[in-house]
Amino acid sequence: MMGKLIRKHPMTRIHYSRYLFFSFIIIIIMFSYFISLIDISIFQSERQLFFETQYIDPLKDPSLNYRNNNTRVNGVIIVLVRNAELHALRETMVHFEDRWNKKYHYPYVFLNDEDFTEEFKKLVSIITDSETFYGKIPKRMWGYPHWINQTKAAESRKDMESKNVIYGGSESYRHMCRFNSGFFFRHELIEKYDFYWRLEPGVEFLCDIDYDPFRFIQNNNITYGFTISLLELPETIPTLWKTVTEFSKKYPQYINKRSVSRFISSSGATYNGCHFWSNFEIGNLNFWRSERYLKFFNYLDQAGGFFYERWGDAPVHSIALALFLEKSQIHFFNDIGYKHSPFQHCPIEKKFHESGKCYCDPTENFDVTYGSCTKNWFAL
Ligand SMILES: Nc1nc2c(ncn2[C@@H]2O[C@H](COP(=O)(O)OP(=O)(O)OP(=O)(O)O)[C@@H](O)[C@H]2O)c(=O)[nH]1
Ligand SMILES: *[C@@H]1O[C@H](CO)[C@@H](O)[C@H](O)[C@H]1NC(C)=O
Ligand SMILES: *[C@@H]1O[C@H](CO)[C@@H](O)[C@H](O)[C@H]1NC(C)=O
Ligand SMILES: *[C@@H]1O[C@H](CO)[C@@H](O)[C@H](O)[C@H]1NC(C)=O
Ligand SMILES: [Mg+2]
Fold first, then answer.
1. Distance between Cα 325 and ligand 2 center (Å)
2. Most buried of 127, 199, 261, 361, CB within 10 angstroms?
3. How are beta strands 281-284 and 204-205 bridged, if at all?
């Protein structure tokens, strides 16, 4: 009887379809609300998920703590520096010793394209109980390779300076970037070491470090560690990615099939500019000495972009790391508070501040702010 009515009565049919229509709308609304909830929770927990599922926490291994064992491994602190930066360096070293190295006394190697002054050596060595070594960089590591057209290089510096590119007009900055990209690890004072910590005058360390990061990376097969990652200025690297792509085509055998290349490029077509900020580096020197990296560096060097453009050692290092290594071989040193103006990494977890280990403002933390790539790193 009812069925008949519904089918026959036109008014009832309208009500019925209207009911269907509104149910449909409500379902759509509920569905999109549900989806948005999932989205938000995924976004918020990417960082947390990273720490729960991927992060190796050096603080959880008591055998790494200096109180239990402060035996050094084959590591060195490397500082490229000019005589004029003496006082900024001394200040940084006092903090670095205090936060970490007085517990281990790792040696320092200071490198310079000129001779260090006697005053420099005297005032630096007095800051630390560690051994200090002072080296001059040979011309082949800090100069023009024969295939570079220096007229063209000078023109390009002028051009970049007129466009206000940072350090665009600087010749020494280019030698510095090329040295840090291809030579620091084979300087004669560095050759005998396996692990390095790169230090720059003017940087600050904002937390106590009670363990040996060198032994930590050795034990865990980690090749490289960073604290800050960010986007490169595109105008300094117009042809870098094209050159990298040519390299990958020519030497497919060097590219790691499980590499973390998605950090630098989602499709492979373009470089997103993400790189580890190389003024801080803790790593294994043998990675840079490997055949694949030397082939990579030589290929870039031949292309001339260190001089005709202004390729930085940070994107060069990072691209190689991302092509050759898996994610687990690169470590985010969350517990190391670090500042190189204008950015700092300050751990946000309460425990670092409540325990008195860190003394930085956790709201001033570059990790997930605009321009940082570390939020991408968490999500990979
Ligand atoms: N000996 C020497 N060291 C240099 C020269 N240029 C740069 N450096 C060092 O190389 C490192 C990087 O140089 P910076 O001038 O700090 O470059 P940056 O970090 O990109 O830029 P800033 O934001 O100015 O710090 C620092 O340790 C400098 O002391 C140079 O011409 N000679
Ligand atoms: C301390 O660490 C070194 C280097 O890893 C190791 O060779 C040594 O056995 C350790 N000593 C102790 C007491 O654990
Ligand atoms: C070097 O570059 C300049 C300016 O770009 C150019 O005029 C000159 O022909 C180049 N020299 C050589 C040998 O290629
Ligand atoms: C590190 O690598 C070596 C050699 O590839 C392997 O034997 C070892 O199990 C690895 N250790 C860890 C902690 O992954
Ligand atoms: Mg600097």
1. 28
2. 199
3. unpaired
pLDDT digits (tens, 9 = 90+) for 297-331: 999 999 999 999 999 999 999 999 999 999 999 99
Domain count along the chain:
2
pLDDT more than 90, % of the chain: 88
How far, in Å, from the CA of 66 to the mean position of ligand 2? 11
Establish whether residue 113 lines the binding site of ligand 1, counting it when its CB lies within 6 angstroms of any ligand atom. yes
Give me the domain span that covers residue 119: 61-379
CATH number assigned to the domain comprising residue 87: 3.90.550.10
Query: Could you tell me the two tokens for 285?
Result: 């020197």
Query: What mean pLDDT, rounded, does the chain reach?
Result: 93
User: How far is CA 58 from each of CA 215, 284, 321, 335, 377, rounded to the nearest angstrom?
Assistant: 10, 17, 21, 9, 19
Q: How far apart are CA 373 and CA 120, in angstroms?
A: 37
- As beta bridge partners, residue 372 has 230
For the Cβ of 180 lying below 6 angstroms from any atom of ligand 1, the answer is no
In this structure, the answer to whether residues 285 and 323 fall within a common structural domain is yes
- Those residues of the chain that have pLDDT short of 50 are 1-6, 8, 39-40
